[in-house]
Amino acid sequence: QRNRSNAGDDLPLCWPNPNDGGLLQVQVPGEAPTIGPAQLTLHDLSGRLHLDHQLTFDPDGAPRRVDLGHTLPAGIYLVQLHTTSSTYTERLLIAPR
Question: Cα–Cα 20 to 30 A to 93, which of 34, 66, 69, 74?
Fold first, then answer.
């Protein structure tokens, strides 16, 4: 299993970023669409888990929406998407409301 951080030419893992703590769009970056289940986790920088959500990607490659529920405190979080072949990591900024 590969562990990749998003780099310049890749599509983003999640957006909008910064985020208001509401809806988050998620996609598999920089390669052909992943089909099937994937696990999305969101940790704060102290390592505390705030979200553990299963997503299913369809052949159309469309991003998936995740509702963060406006419950996260402002700050920086690590978003990880675990697919059958890779793990992708990206920082997410939740802006103050």
Answer: 34
